[in-house]
Design a protein that fits this description.
The complex is a heterotrimer of chains A (75), B (169) and C (376).
Chain A lengths: L1 H16 L27 H12 L19
Chain B lengths: L1 H16 L6 E2 L10 E4 L4 E3 L7 E7 L4 H17 L4 E7 L5 H9 L5 E4 L4 H5 L7 E5 L5 E6 L6 H12 L4
Parallel strand pairs in B: 4-5, 5-6
Antiparallel strand pairs in B: 1-8, 2-3, 2-6, 4-7, 7-8
Chain C lengths: L25 E11 L2 E14 L3 E14 L2 H6 L3 E16 L2 E12 L2 E14 L4 E16 L2 E22 L2 E14 L7 E5 L7 E5 L5 E15 L3 E12 L4 E13 L3 E12 L27 E14 L9 E19 L13 E16 L1
Antiparallel strand pairs in C: 1-2, 1-18, 2-3, 3-4, 4-5, 5-6, 6-7, 7-8, 8-9, 9-12, 10-11, 12-13, 13-14, 14-15, 15-16, 16-17, 17-18
The chains are: A mainly alpha (75), B alpha+beta (169), C mainly beta (376).
């Protein structure tokens, strides 16, 4: 089933990541646009979590509305 | 199943050969890659012209939080050790100068700022984190690499700079 | 009223920070307002976060809903009411190298519903910081009571497992994937709501009985998203989410959003969202007779429905000269107009027609968020 496979892939990625030094195809010094504040998935968590609440209390579906990552990739 | 395992195993192998996350000493140190970049005034500065001094090369960008955070500490180190034969260059990696100039207007520093807009020098130095700081000794050899910055890292820089300042050209 | 069947957990702050750097210290104070379908809900919301030594971060939130409800369900089977719901939340983050560990807890209280939620997450940057993977687990415990009935008390037990993956694809494109599975056990319906069935002896042609739901529900949601940086400095995002659960509800959500900054101070955004779902297996607007089947529902939230929203936002960022400790501040105004349309839920305010021929219900809602943000 989709869920199990996906979770397994994610776990595998996490496990492999601890030692990975894969060469990034977007170098750290090329992340100018990705690091721009307008490229953030969620600039205002207080407003987006409220909107999520508005929808989820009136619709049958829920979940999978968050994201994290991107950004400057510093440190 | 095999294909799934191949990738993480290769990654593991790569990791064993990889440079450690924090500062690493490059023994049997290679010469620091030469560069010739333009500074804010429009003049050209080359690494060769700095030979004989201990040089700190800091790759930074105005969009990088830890880079901005590091600047005041770098400026302090520069002011303190310059009289002893220490030089510092901040190489900006952005494709256009405007954001960097705006940042420098608000946070002025005394050390030289050079521009590497086409990222050739960043590539030659294998910059793999922002910021990255390299320390070059009086003989032009690349001795230390510091990837990333957290407040307190400057203590390590100072320790290494003082050690290299004691060496002969 | 049962405002928060599964809502409390959604106001939990995003637990995952970009590993490597914790988000900046920030405080937001928001006024929120919802007005639609005879219901008005407004109130304040406060969110504060602070980090220490670039390693630890704490956040706290406070949220209130002041409800005045004359919704279609309320009007046809009960009387308009007013109510207040208060929610508190607190969270902690610990950053170590590329990994961020986070824990949070929140409590939501209203006169007939109490919800506690706890959440743990772990997030890691990998592959040269191009990929961020976050895993999270949320547990919820709800206590359900009924106003005017001291004998009624029940519970809901909730577990959520989720993965978020973010991938920098090119210099100008980030991709995201989210997967979440939600399992609930307990009293999953509303102790006040009723279903209707054909009753030729009744004046209206139908009568009411209490709804009856299964005591478990498991749903899975999978979302894909992409965000592009446009060369003249703007951002475009597209999202798609698919949801499916054991009540036979399948839903699709599609959203497009555009963000356009102007100068350094102003940012405008516009977005359009489209949502569609089919009805739950045991849902019906009008059952043929009393006790027609094992499970009975007439909650419009479980009906075959669609919603479309169009939203606008404007933000103004500035440096507050007089307040020294604030490096940056912003004012934001966001407005959304949502239209809800039901394919099998009828508007019972229309009487004098044969049961089951009332017009299909639809309504519009206006949602406003006005907030001030300060970075320190």
């Amino acid at each position: 089933m989709i869920p199990v496979r996906l979770l397994a892939t994610a776990l595998l990625l996490l496990a492999a990541s601890g030692c990975s030094r894969l060469e990034p195809w977007v170098k750290p010094y090329e992340r100018e646009n990705i690091a721009d504040p307008i490229m953030a998935w969620d600039s205002n968590p207080i407003a987006s979590s409220y909107m999520q609440h508005v929808y989820e209390s009136r619709e049958g579906a829920r979940g999978a509305s968050g994201a994290s990552g991107g950004g400057c990739g510093c440190n | 199943m095999k294909t799934i395992l191949r990738f993480p195993l290769a990654a593991l192998l790569a990791a064993l050969v990889a440079v450690a996350w924090s500062a690493s000493a490059t023994d049997g140190s290679p010469p620091a890659p030469e560069f010739k970049l333009v500074n804010r005034a429009g003049g050209e500065v080359s690494l060769a012209s700095l030979k004989g001094q201990v040089v700190m090369i800091n790759f930074w960008a105005s969009w990088c939080g830890p880079c901005r955070q590091e600047f005041p500490a770098l400026d302090q180190i520069y002011s303190k050790y310059k009289p002893m034969g220490f030089e510092m260059v901040g190489i900006n990696v952005e494709s256009e100068k405007s954001d960097a100039e705006r940042f420098l207007g608000k946070t002025p520093v005394n050390f030289q700022i050079l521009f590497d807009p086409d990222n050739k020098v960043s590539g030659n130095y294998g910059v793999s984190a922002m910021p990255t700081t390299f320390l070059v000794d009086r003989q032009g050899k690349l001795r230390w690499q510091h990837r990333a910055y957290k407040p307190g890292d400057e203590a390590k820089y100072i320790e290494q700079i003082r050690e290299m300042l004691r060496e002969k050209s | 009223m049962q405002l928060i069947r599964r809502i409390a957990l959604l106001l939990l702050l995003p637990l995952t920070a970009v590993a490597g750097v914790l988000p900046d210290d920030r405080a937001d104070l928001m006024y929120h307002s919802y007005d639609g379908g005879g219901v008005t809900i407004d109130g304040p919301s406060l969110l504060v976060r602070k980090k220490f030594a670039e390693k630890y971060a704490v956040n706290a939130s406070y949220y209130v809903d002041m409800v005045s409800s004359a919704s279609i369900d309320v009007i046809t089977t009960a009387s308009p009411y007013q109510e207040e719901r208060t929610q508190y939340g607190v969270g902690f983050e610990y950053l170590r190298g590329k990994v961020t560990y986070a824990a949070s807890f929140s409590n939501s209280t209203e006169n007939d519903y109490d919800a506690d939620t706890a959440s743990l997450s772990i997030s890691q940057d990998m592959f040269g910081d191009l990929t961020t993977v976050a895993l999270f687990f949320t547990r919820g415990w709800d206590d359900v009571t009924r106003r005017g009935d001291a004998t009624f008390a029940d519970q809901v037990d909730r577990r959520i497992y989720g993965v978020n993956v973010s991938q920098v694809a090119t210099r100008n494109l980030i991709l995201g994937l989210s997967f979440e599975t939600i399992t609930e056990e307990g009293f999953l319906n509303n102790p006040y709501r009723q279903v209707r069935f054909v009753d030729l002896d009744a004046a209206l042609g139908y009568s009411y009985e209490s709804e009856l739901y299964p005591r478990t529900r498991t749903g899975n949601a999978l979302a894909l998203r992409a965000r592009w940086y446009l060369p003249y400095r703007a951002a475009l995002q597209a999202d798609y989410r698919f949801y499916s659960d054991t009540w036979d509800i399948n839903a699709s959500t599609a959203e497009v959003a555009y963000t356009h900054p102007l100068d350094d101070a102003w940012t405008f955004d516009v977005h359009f969202r489209f949502y569609t779902q089919n009805a739950a297996e045991f849902y019906s607007d009008l059952f043929p007779r009393e006790d027609f089947q094992n499970f009975l529902a007439r909650d419009k939230e479980l009906a075959a429905m669609q919603s479309q929203s169009l939203g606008f936002g404007v933000a103004y960022e500035f440096k507050p000269g007089r307040i020294e400790f604030l490096g940056k501040a912003a004012v934001n105004l966001k407005y959304d107009h949502i239209r809800f349309e039901y394919d099998d839920f009828r508007d019972l305010r229309t009487t004098g027609v044969a049961a089951g021929t009332e017009p299909l219900y639809q309504f519009d809602a206006d949602v406003i968020r006005l907030f001030f943000s300060g970075w320190f």
